[in-house]
Amino acid sequence: MPTNKLQGGFAIVLLSAAFLLLFYFDILQAPNDYLFADSGDGIKNYYTYAYHIKNDSSYVYFEGMNYPYGELHVFTDGNPFLANFVKILQEFFPQISRYSIGIYNSFMLWSFCVAAIFLYLILFEFMRDVVWSVAGALAIMVLSPQIMRAGGHFSLVTFFTFPITYYLNIAENLKNPFKHIGLFITTICWFFIHPYLGMISALFILLYALIFMLAYRKKSYWHFVISGFVLP
Fold it and tell me: What CA–CA distance (Å, rounded) separates 177 from 168?
């Protein structure tokens, strides 16, 4: 049984990974051989993601639809953040595009493990009890409804975005001078995973800062309020 914060961190990593392997072992052992959806929005989102990596000449523009004009990739729901990361890697590893679907599937599933770590850190800051923090984080991960988005809206499956945003808000309250920079950068990244995720995070930052500023008369939180208006 874990007795300190670090041991609890190791425990939540092992337990969340065990859960994923228990329920998704067949997918995780061969992620490139599996599709979460083979029709509708699902197959379209696989296409816009994979085509962008292999064929597009631009990092921001998608040439695989709306001929002859094309489209901004962020509007195609093709996860520009992950797609462009893999596209950059393709410059050094030309065959990586053959495994783009597997990378996407793995990214979706392992995002739950990353989320569980930050959920544990959030709960520990409030509860200061390792066992209950681990149990709570695992329960929230298991019960998350975001896995239901795997039927077509793959970018919205990314579970770690809101826990990271919430934790960085807490870290800012704990007087860490660098966390607001991380909060700004991560929110921008969430926009490029899916605009909905970025918008939700930005609005959360705005409301959190406004409530905190009004409740505690913290004028130093104006930069969070401004960020909440600017980011959307």
Answer: 11
